[in-house]
Structure prediction request, 197 residues.
Amino acid sequence: MTNPTDQKILRKMLRKQRLTLTKPQKKQLGFLATRQFSHLQHRFLNKKSAKVGVFIDAFGELPTQFLVNYLFLKGFEVYLPVVTHEKKPLSFVKITQQNSYKNRLMRHTFGMRQPTKGKKIQAKQLDIIIMPLVALDKKGNRLGMGGGFYDKSLANCKNKPVKIGWAYDFQLVEKLNVNVWDIGLDMAVLPSGLMIF
Prediction:
């Protein structure tokens, strides 16, 4: 079991570190991570019109704008997470390149941007999910923001989606203590390279 105090301290420290980065620094690191992602090899990434779940950064996370643009360029179907209730799993709604950073996104109660309308699908219908995180370790364990949305959403998913962490290099720690319900990563993309678990 994870010590909640340790998690709290780690979350606070790494979130603070994310916020010290300047806009140009974040943009550059987002670009470098997208370049790393372009080298990733997986059968789902070769699939025409693969369904990819991704998030729009909102709390100092590694930016996803270059990544979203790359996904559209490759012809993937892009889905954003939608919070319907704090105790329920996430739903995912397909977006187009035209509305990805424009009007049809609103901020939900927890501050992230999500589509206001569209057909909702479940995480298990995605081929790939690119996940935000506060920290990850060398075994692919992930520490999220604390809401448990991704853990709930992926709890009953077996063979897909492929779970990819999206993070700054400093978010990689030696070891995280995990709970039985914590969902780990299959891969991670950092500005400096790729990790396969």
User: Anything to note?
Assistant: The mean pLDDT is 87. Residues 9 and 36 are 30 Å apart (CA to CA).
